[in-house]
Amino acid sequence: MNNLNWLESFPPLLALEPTARETLTKTARIVEAPIGTIGYREGGACGAYVMRLAGQSRVYKMSASGREILLYRVHAGETCVITTTCLLGHSNYPASTIVEQPITDVIIPAAAFNQLMIDSAVFRTFVMTNYGALITDLIMLLDEVAFQSLDARLAKLLLESGSATISRTHQLMADELGTAREVVSRQLKRFEQKSWVALGRGQVEITDRAALEKLATN
């Protein structure tokens, strides 16, 4: 890799020290992956720090029974909290990730990452600032799972789509909420009976946004 133009996607790193820039020039590389690519699997070794330039991936945890729960998504301009945790703690991945939209990533090998954490105050501050923000997001997720009812979490999930029509199967919604498809289907049917949504094949249409917003904030 002979240039560092990608640093513009991460403005705080534009202030990197010359030695840090030299390290990145020698070691960092850009990779691309299509939809459906497995980025890492639970139990696997972590070999690099990942910085997202484009696309989206889903990080999830799978139970022994095969039930999946969404932990978070990694978008352009973001890093992965689990990857950072594994690098800092020299541990294996506790979850898995899959590409949902074609991605372009900057990959920094673990050895270079560790050296940059020692040598570069700018890089170290960037990593820890992002890490702190992502940990806060995970704590919010735990709070929702532990203290919010499923119907409130489902209402929030529907509203977060930003559209009146959500083209997503009941199974996909169940995966994101960490529950069974049948549970989501029953709850959506209750929403439909209350005229909050209209159900179609593979999609949900929001018909009473105010009611869902009130439920989501309870």
Describe the structure.
This protein has 218 residues and is of the alpha+beta class. The chain has two domains: 5-146, Jelly Rolls; 149-216, Winged helix-like DNA-binding domain superfamily/Winged helix DNA-binding domain (Arc Repressor Mutant, subunit A). It has eight helices and eight strands, in the order αββββαβαααβααββα. It has helices at 18-27, 81-89, 110-119, 121-147, 150-159, 170-177, 181-193, 209-216; strands at residues 29-33, 38-40, 48-62, 68-74, 96-109, 165-166, 197-200, 203-206. Strands 1, 2, 3, 4 and 5 form a five-stranded antiparallel β-sheet that branches. A three-stranded antiparallel β-sheet has the order 6-8-7. A hairpin with a 5-residue loop joins strand 3 and strand 4. The longest helix has 27 residues, at 121-147. The radius of gyration is 20 Å and the shape is elongated.
Count of runs of 4 or more consecutive helical residues: 8
Distance between the termini: 50 Å
CA gyration radius, whole angstroms: 20 Å
Q: What is the percentage of strand-forming residues?
A: 15-25%
Give the beta-strand count. 8
Output the structural class: alpha+beta
| Unreliable sequence segments | none
